[in-house]
């Protein structure tokens, strides 16, 4: 048995795994924020609430309609994405002519309303959500025990991140998106419907939050505040990675999850703040973020 | 005489409160290459932007192929068959050369096939995997022209395509415009390079302070040299 600075490998690997799982949520959530920020120039403050909605919709689908985890994994992001679509179409799109601050205020207000509504109807105690049968149990890897569901969360988040990255960087649709991010006026003058693209992009970013919410449902209890706590950290992740950078959001998300995990091993007192400390340092040294472009 | 393809009447345009187009009038017949000439700030670019709908605060009439477009948004105007090659070229840095080229969607049949475009601009083929803005200025200009040729748009608005380019590239762009003419494209060309304009265009319009103040036939250009020099202040 090897030991590192007197730390048993089980503890180290266990915390790294935990970090990787947190990092999975950071990555998917900050990716959604980055996609939205890239095209809309709006910091989507309702992202945490939309993540919470993803978890709640999955829970409601099961509780009221008997629809299980795997269908919820598809249906819940679609439903939450649809609410995002309506929000963009009827509220956000009216604010683009104004300062971006108004979009931020609107999404912040919407987050408070959504969280308030769910708190009102479901209380704050939280609803349990079962791990799907297929993923119950775990693997004994010899040096540690790996719960199947946690392994799945990592895999699913990687698929979502790589899929999104591929779509944006490698497809024709993504080329429209990148072009519209740079120069929406010219893209419109080529005959492309930019307002619709903006609407669908917002809905997609929101659907990613909903997807993360479904992934989270069996791990954390489904409660109205689950997004509010997490999203603060995710904003820090986005600041560190650089606003609007797709790859930056993904890499920073996983990376910071792991760093947080390591901190929990070597200096547990610092684990709750390490991301914010890194954010402060990055803001001082490279304000545009590690992967951001300076303008 | 047949109806012109583009008929611009009393076109006025504003940037916010600033009134810059004061009643532009001109016609372009199908298959013609016409220029808008004029000093810096005369309103040439603004005229193209107003036709395209990008300068959105505008009044008057712009009839393209029998359809009034003055109340339309840029994307609908584009879908009528008008395409812009902007003064600043508008090459996207986050797109490869090929992606830049393929970006504008096809709006009608009759655009140039990709291999024809690469015949016209062999450099673009060689560098199709490069980042769009890694091209030289001349190559970026060619890319900006090339990408509006495959869409099926019939009226091309080219804003100073020779600006800041070396003479051999200016010649290549000149040959390209000749080719476009034989392919049946209609071109509105904004130019400062008067000699270049004279070599490619059928007709010239002189723009001054937001109005078309004169029109000179390409064949009568020698007789009108003095007048033109006075207009353009060269
Ligand atoms: N974005 C803008 N906002 C306000 N005024 C503008 C803007 N763009 C151009 N103008 C003004 O509109 C007038 C016409 O400009 P325009 O760009 O159409 O001229 P131009 O003939 O294309 O000149 P150049 O040969 O320098 O390109 C000028 O007085 C210019 O200062
Ligand atoms: Mg100009």
Automatic annotation (TrEMBL), chain A:
<comment type="similarity">
    <text>Belongs to the binding-protein-dependent transport system permease family. LivHM subfamily.</text>
</comment>
<feature type="transmembrane region" description="Helical">
    <location>
        <begin position="232"/>
        <end position="259"/>
    </location>
</feature>
<feature type="transmembrane region" description="Helical">
    <location>
        <begin position="149"/>
        <end position="168"/>
    </location>
</feature>
<keyword id="KW-0472">Membrane</keyword>
<protein>
    <submittedName>
        <fullName>Branched-chain amino acid ABC transporter, permease protein</fullName>
    </submittedName>
</protein>
<keyword id="KW-1133">Transmembrane helix</keyword>
<keyword id="KW-1003">Cell membrane</keyword>
<dbReference type="Pfam" id="PF02653">
    <property type="entry name" value="BPD_transp_2"/>
</dbReference>
<feature type="transmembrane region" description="Helical">
    <location>
        <begin position="100"/>
        <end position="118"/>
    </location>
</feature>
<keyword id="KW-0029">Amino-acid transport</keyword>
<feature type="transmembrane region" description="Helical">
    <location>
        <begin position="20"/>
        <end position="43"/>
    </location>
</feature>
<dbReference type="InterPro" id="IPR001851">
    <property type="entry name" value="ABC_transp_permease"/>
</dbReference>
<feature type="transmembrane region" description="Helical">
    <location>
        <begin position="265"/>
        <end position="285"/>
    </location>
</feature>
<dbReference type="InterPro" id="IPR052157">
    <property type="entry name" value="BCAA_transport_permease"/>
</dbReference>
<dbReference type="GO" id="GO:0022857">
    <property type="term" value="F:transmembrane transporter activity"/>
</dbReference>
<keyword id="KW-0813">Transport</keyword>
<keyword id="KW-0812">Transmembrane</keyword>
<dbReference type="GO" id="GO:0005886">
    <property type="term" value="C:plasma membrane"/>
</dbReference>
<dbReference type="GO" id="GO:0006865">
    <property type="term" value="P:amino acid transport"/>
</dbReference>
<feature type="transmembrane region" description="Helical">
    <location>
        <begin position="199"/>
        <end position="220"/>
    </location>
</feature>
<feature type="transmembrane region" description="Helical">
    <location>
        <begin position="55"/>
        <end position="80"/>
    </location>
</feature>
UniProtKB/TrEMBL annotation, chain B:
<protein>
    <submittedName>
        <fullName>ABC transporter ATP-binding protein</fullName>
    </submittedName>
</protein>
<dbReference type="Pfam" id="PF00005">
    <property type="entry name" value="ABC_tran"/>
</dbReference>
<dbReference type="InterPro" id="IPR017871">
    <property type="entry name" value="ABC_transporter-like_CS"/>
</dbReference>
<dbReference type="InterPro" id="IPR052156">
    <property type="entry name" value="BCAA_Transport_ATP-bd_LivF"/>
</dbReference>
<dbReference type="InterPro" id="IPR027417">
    <property type="entry name" value="P-loop_NTPase"/>
</dbReference>
<feature type="domain" description="ABC transporter">
    <location>
        <begin position="6"/>
        <end position="234"/>
    </location>
</feature>
<comment type="similarity">
    <text>Belongs to the ABC transporter superfamily.</text>
</comment>
<keyword id="KW-0029">Amino-acid transport</keyword>
<dbReference type="InterPro" id="IPR003593">
    <property type="entry name" value="AAA+_ATPase"/>
</dbReference>
<dbReference type="GO" id="GO:0016887">
    <property type="term" value="F:ATP hydrolysis activity"/>
</dbReference>
<dbReference type="InterPro" id="IPR003439">
    <property type="entry name" value="ABC_transporter-like_ATP-bd"/>
</dbReference>
<dbReference type="GO" id="GO:0005524">
    <property type="term" value="F:ATP binding"/>
</dbReference>
<keyword id="KW-0547">Nucleotide-binding</keyword>
<keyword id="KW-0067">ATP-binding</keyword>
<dbReference type="GO" id="GO:0015807">
    <property type="term" value="P:L-amino acid transport"/>
</dbReference>
<keyword id="KW-0813">Transport</keyword>
<dbReference type="GO" id="GO:0015658">
    <property type="term" value="F:branched-chain amino acid transmembrane transporter activity"/>
</dbReference>
